[in-house]
Design brief:
Elements: E1 6-10, H1 18-27, E2 31-35, H2 41-58, E3 63-68, E4 82-84, E5 89-93, E6 100-103, E7 106-110, E8 125-128, E9 133-140, E10 144-148, E11 152-154, E12 160-161, H3 174-185, E13 190-193, H4 199-208, E14 215-220, H5 223-227, H6 229-234, E15 238-242, H7 243-249, H8 255-269, E16 273-276, H9 291-303, E17 307-310, H10 312-315, H11 320-335, H12 353-365, E18 370-375, H13 379-386, E19 393-397, H14 400-405, E20 412-417, H15 423-436, E21 446-451, E22 460-466, H16 468-475, H17 477-493
Parallel strand pairs: 1-2, 1-17, 2-3, 3-13, 5-7, 13-14, 14-15, 15-16, 16-17, 18-19, 18-21, 19-20
Antiparallel strand pairs: 4-11, 5-10, 6-7, 8-9, 8-12, 9-10, 21-22
Helix pairs in contact: 1-2, 1-11, 9-11, 12-13
GO molecular function, one term: magnesium ion binding
Domain Pyruvate kinase C-terminal: 355-466
EC number: 2.7.1.40
Length: 494
């Protein structure tokens, strides 16, 4: 049984081998994330090649997301990790130094964006190690001094956040430009842009695609991004609820309601939304998830997220396959009580959206075995996915790049490419593809949607109900057509 909510698994040292990727696909992974905060282009190239080989070996369609690192603020190198205690003082230098302990309660460090220190004010907070350690600013000179308020261990290159400080940094760095160029060259499906603050950032990212039709995901992890969410959604092909940095930039108790709001707005706009960060974090070391983590995944599914993401759990965890299987099982069980009717009355996005809404409602009302959709751009599948139908969405595409991108869409099952201009042959190839995979019910009912003229993006305008007799006809279309010709000739000579 296919789940409808998709799993995005981050690949890393524990999971980027060909053998492990194949196991993750079998366990239920639909997409793979390449985290460009770590690793060289050569490292990621090997991983990418393994993904594509695994797709061939398993005859499965999976999507590839390249996560662009962005201007992540980090401490510099340390001589050794700092075991910080409440009351200790840490000084941030405005030049590059090797961090060290200068006295029993006195530490010095540098950061990779030293100009930020000029904007910091007394009584503002600095968060170290992605929010685990909090420090309050007590002095600002060219250097910034802050007093530690809770204990923790800080090591080299850990993240730093300044939630109270207005920071003007270019969202896309020189490194990011090189990484995006690598992604375009390698035809990855999705690019996740980090630390987005406005639509301008997404427009800049799209310029760097140089006409390539890769899809852009805006990572929502800054306070400004939440404030500007409408314009960001309008400029993006999807969003990611990046709860790690977001949980530092906004009060922690606001994260659940912001997550629900982002899922709701993405669903309404008809773009995929990814819920990310620490979903099954304890499984990085443990065999079983906590009850709270299980509920976290389930609630994201019930809210309507298209994708749930695994980070370190699958990248560096003890048992990545077990993590994906666990998430897969949580999704399947939760979807048994999913409210498909909740989206019946959503407003249409455009005039063609009427077709997609009608198809999904018709399929559910008739209890059809499946919806068959051939798409040129992927838009018709995306719009049908928006209505969250109970009926499986078997989707075909005119090209392989569109097909792999469909793996991100809720409820969509990408099957194969079809390059056929004649409608009858097109339907025949769809049905035969399902038969080959063992999922065609010849005595069932299918709703087929195609567009005329064929192959033109946005032209989906026809609905066809395939009854058992019509399924039989199309499955044997060539033979039926020859028989019809013979009968016409015989009639002519009688």
């Amino acid at each position: 049984m296919d789940k409808k909510t998709k799993i995005l698994a981050t690949l890393g040292p524990a999971s980027n081998s060909l053998e492990m990727i194949e196991k993750l696909i079998d366990a239920g992974a639909n997409m793979f994330r390449l985290n460009f905060s770590h690793g060289s282009h050569e490292y990621h190239q090997e991983t990418l090649d393994n993904i594509r080989q695994a797709m061939k070996n398993k005859s499965k369609i999976v999507g590839i997301l390249q996560d662009i690192s962005g201007p992540k603020i980090r401490v510099g190198e340390l001589k050794e990790p700092f075991n910080l205690e409440s009351g200790d003082v840490i000084t941030f230098y405005d030049k590059e130094i090797i961090g060290e302990k200068k006295a029993p309660k006195d530490y010095i460090v540098s950061i990779n964006y030293p100009d930020i220190l000029k904007k910091i004010k007394v009584d503002e907070y600095i968060y170290l190690y992605d929010g685990i350690i909090r420090a309050k600013v007590i002095e600002t000179t060219p250097k910034v001094k802050a007093r530690i308020e809770n204990s923790g261990t800080l090591s080299s290159r850990k993240g730093v956040n300044f939630p109270n400080t207005v920071i003007n940094i270019e969202v896309i760095t020189k490194k990011d430009e090189q990484d995006i160029a690598w992604g375009v060259k390698n035809r990855v499906d999705y690019f996740a842009i980090s630390f987005v603050q406005s639509a301008k950032d997404m427009k800049r990212a799209r310029e760097l695609l140089n006409g390539y039709d890769g899809k852009l995901i805006a990572k929502i992890e800054k306070f400004d991004a939440v404030s500007n969410i409408k314009e960001i959604i309008d400029a993006s092909d999807g969003i990611m609820v990046a709860r790690g940095d977001l949980g530092i930039e906004v009060p922690y108790y606001d994260v659940p309601t912001i997550q629900k709001m982002l899922i709701r707005k993405s669903n309404a706009a008809g773009i995929p939304v990814i819920t990310a960060t620490q979903m099954l974090l304890s499984m990085t070391q443990n065999e079983r998830a906590t009850r709270a983590e299980i509920s976290d995944v389930a609630n994201a599914v019930l809210d309507g997220t298209d994708i749930v993401m695994l980070s370190e759990e699958s990248a560096v965890g003890e048992n990545p396959t077990n993590v994906v299987e666990t998430m897969h099982n949580i999704i399947l069980k939760t979807e048994e009580i999913f409210n498909h009717k909740k989206r019946d009355h959503m407003p249409y996005l455009d005039e063609f959206d009427v077709i997609q809404a009608t198809v999904t409602k018709l399929a559910d009302d008739l209890k059809a075995d499946g919806i068959l959709s051939l798409t040129s751009s992927g838009n018709s599948a995306r719009k049908m996915s928006r209505y969250k139908p109970k009926t499986p969405l078997y989707t075909f595409a005119h090209n392989s790049e569109t097909l792999t991108r469909l793996s991100a869409l809720w409820g969509v099952i990408p099957i194969t490419t079809i390059k056929e201009a004649q409608a009858s042959k097109m339907i025949q190839k769809m049905l035969r593809s399902l038969e080959k995979r063992g999922i065609l019910n010849k005595k069932g009912l299918y709703i087929c949607t195609v567009g005329y003229p064929v192959g033109i993006p946005g032209s989906t305008n026809t609905i066809k109900i395939l009854t058992p007799s019509e399924i039989g006809y199309y499955m044997n279309f060539k033979e039926n057509r020859e028989k019809s010709k013979i009968e016409k000739k015989e009639k002519k000579y009688k």
